[in-house]
Hints:
Elements: H1 2-10, E1 14-18, E2 22-27, E3 31-37, E4 40-44, E5 50-55, H2 57-60, E6 70-73, E7 76-77, E8 80-81, H3 84-99, E9 108-113, H4 119-131, E10 136-141, H5 142-149, E11 160-165, E12 170-176, E13 179-186, H6 190-205, E14 207-208, H7 211-221, E15 232-239, E16 244-250, H8 251-275, H9 278-287, E17 289-292, H10 301-309, E18 313-315, H11 322-332, H12 334-341
Parallel strand pairs: 1-9, 9-10, 11-17, 17-18
Antiparallel strand pairs: 1-2, 2-3, 4-5, 4-6, 7-8, 11-12, 12-13, 14-15, 15-16
Helix pairs in contact: 3-4, 5-11, 6-7, 6-8
Amino acid sequence: MFLNKIIGLISKDIAIDLGTANIVICIKDKGIVVNEPSVVAVQEDRFGKRKILAVGQEAKQMLGKTPPNIKAVRPIQGGVISDFEITEIIIKHFINKIHNRKSFIKPRVIICVPFGVTPVERNAVRDSAINAGAREVILIEEPMAAAIGTGIPVSDPQGYIIVDIGAGTTEVAVTSLGGLVICKASRAAGDKFDEAITNYVRHNYNLYIGEKTAEQIKIEIGSAIKLGEELKIKVNGRDNSGFLTTIELGSEGVRFAIDELLKEIILVIKNVLETIPPDLAADAVDNGIILTGGGSLIRGLDTYIANTIKLPVKLSNEPLLAVAYGMNEVINNAKLLKIIFNE
């Protein structure tokens, strides 16, 4: 025990947010040091042997542009690790990059995972981090990290509702006394928004676009409510005849494309509200809903949810980094760490 405390003083804790879209890494006393896409470029030979060509931002630039023997892989899909070998490579790459082998003592690593991961998946994540060079691995649920990152006093005996809309999953959770009282999730999230936009453009304009274009459309003109003045964007793609074509797409079309997904998110929120204990429900009425995650940046989404659920909805200050800020707070606050993990 004494030796572990000494090691803890010498080694720097590392917190890793394994997001579907991005991997964000914090170091104790330094804050965020890595924020790059969760993408790996892999080259495969005729014998099936894989070679890593690029990781992060460099690999994302290759999405949709690679020859047949090179694939840009996103190993975390829908909030779930679909390729543990590649995930281990990503973790190892960044641990080596930031730890830089300056210390012979391996770091303690705290990793953020979706609430619904199975015990098998949790063990696989731990094994990946250990194999990548971690001394000890602690897992924290993503909604809890997001709640901490938005400034919710999670250790208080008060109920707070957080809706975290990431790239792979939307998680709706109620926090109280350092834990998650309720948490429900849906795949209606950022990636599904992109997919819905892609399908809408194909069906209505006979135009084929890639995921990067769909994401750009979502960011530039995506809206959950009817805007006073419709936004427009020029979209380039390939039509059914194989010719390159440009169309003009409006925000009303995007709103129609993602409408069913927004209704799914509302359904998850309603399910949580229906099962929340009465005393915490009273808190929720006072505290409202806190919205975070990259998907929450769609225009008017807070208004859309507030009008439908009939509760006040507040958008967090920096939705994209809420989970990372929460992880950073955990590794720098020994008291909070003890409350959450019962250390």
